[in-house]
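Note to self: user wants both folds in one dump. Writing first protein now.
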Amino acid sequence: MNKGTPVIMQMQSLISRFEFQKLEIEFKTEKNVRTFSTWNLLKVMLFAQCTTKKSLRDICATFKSISNRFYHLGINEISRNNLSNALSKRSAKLFEKLFYILLEKVQKETGSRRDKRFRFKNRLIAIDSTTISLCLSLCMWASFRSKKGGVKVHTMYDIKRQIPDFMIITEARKHDHTAVVDMPFRRGTIYVLDRAYLCLKSLQNINENGAFFVTRTKTNTQYGVIRKNKITAKTILLDQVISFTGAKASNYQEPLRLVRYKNPEDGKVYDYITNNIDLAASTIAAIYKSRWDIELFFKWIKQNLKVKTFYGRSENAVLIQIWTASIAFLLMEYIRFMSKTAMSITGVFRILGSHMMSDCKIMDLLGELPRRKQRSVRSLDIQMDFGF
């Protein structure tokens, strides 16, 4: 990151230009393009995400006010027409693939992180989805209900690293458990799922891949008790080995473990099922509780990035905006990790967002902040950010 380079350019430099050019060739995004390249589209969209610009007019007005810096930004010109056409015609698949290239880099360079909540070394992945509402009269392609439109972002979230591990964007009407079919499952990983994903075929798929799952039972879940295990904690009411019964029991015929947990804070009782027989029952309950991290991630994205109002109406424009928001999150988390600052990602986002056109080095901006003493997982700080 060279001195005199705007912060937005320093952020974009973390993305391999060579890999990006390969994507441009693969998806033919530079065909018949004269002035506004896809690389510049990425730059503008990252700027808009980090500064939470409200509209195309707002973005263009900001860039026109700094037209004397176009040379340093590598931009020849920018207009609403160019930006609108780019959002509608440049393939969103490029930005999706770029997200995974950047994710692989972040995972490799940041390595594994220690989570004080757990002692086991298995990866811990939460699976859930969030619905992003759209105006049905403007986005007819996103029909969801009679008077509502939207898309659904199905996400695998790495709880220990605190970053997404896999994402799929589908129409909002698609049920959660049907998206699990397209998700990759790795041997030895623990997947924690909401009970909306309680589909016996999905659980069998996870089990066959040598992975573990933790989920909740539904009110109509039918099972028979094989044997009872010894209870080792006051908060655990039951620890049993069970097997599914009922019409679809043939979809998962192997024994399972049922853990009944009583929350000491409010007295509520929860039933969890898992195919892991080695971990303590209290650890199974703690694993499911950690699923809340993915809810905090969704809330952070919606509070801080532009994924609730959109710059374009087409499906392609909406997808580009969601994928660039995800890329911006990865860049912020990567910068936070490399700077070793103790500040939350929200603090880093605010500091960099207010200095997008500054020539200061990113590490200088974050250098005076308190440093963390050790690499440990830090949950997204959401509770204090409701006014942002």
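First done. Writing the second protein, which came from a different request thread.
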Amino acid sequence: MAIVPISKDDFDRRSPVRTPLVQMLAIEKSWFADSDRNMIGAVIFDKTDKDWNYVVLALHEDGNYRWIDGNSSYPDLALAESKLVERMAAIDETGKVVETLFSDQDDSKPENTSVLFNDINFELKKYFKKNPEHLHQLSPRKFEELIASILKDFGFSVELTQATRDGGRDIIAYLRNAVCSYLTYVECKKYSSENKVGVGVIREVVGVHNIRRATKSMIVTTSFFTQDAKSEAEMVENQLELKDYDALKGWLANY
């Protein structure tokens, strides 16, 4: 099946899922599709790194096109376009993409890791690895999606709770094996760097933890914790984990 150039209007009619932050930092330059329009792709200029990248999106069951593959750091537009067409043709021929998503990672990556149909994709996590300060530009909900995606890469099964629910558990994460099931509630706080997470949040999360009987609870923030918050957490250290901006950068270092 042929991979052919298409117009931006044709590309946009496919309802591609775009991440707002990427739209701010990059410019789309050319667009491609297979002849049946089951898969589309774009070549993008990264305004920060001054290089060329491509993304491949596939038709999802909800009617939107979502990211399934991509690559970066090409020196010119022509090379990026040829690599995009080559990659789309290979995906179209084999119907497979998962095995290439983490080709630059070591063998310790969990076998069930997948970022198919994920709005916060692998390339974006690589971007945040290089530019963690831009985490503060995410909306709170997008930050929750990012954390859920990272936890999924670590081997968890994850579920985002409704955005309007009460605090204490933005993400429900499970680790399951033949021996046991490990349930973690994750509360995400997308705060500015100068706005530290206080003791009130600790008590709220611990309260939900005790009521709902999770194995562990965790608070993840783009900021840091006050000393009072850390002291309170130490009293329940077997129940609660605190992950601050530095810990989050450590997670992103895996990409």
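Dump finished. Worth passing along: The two ends are 33 Å apart (CA to CA).
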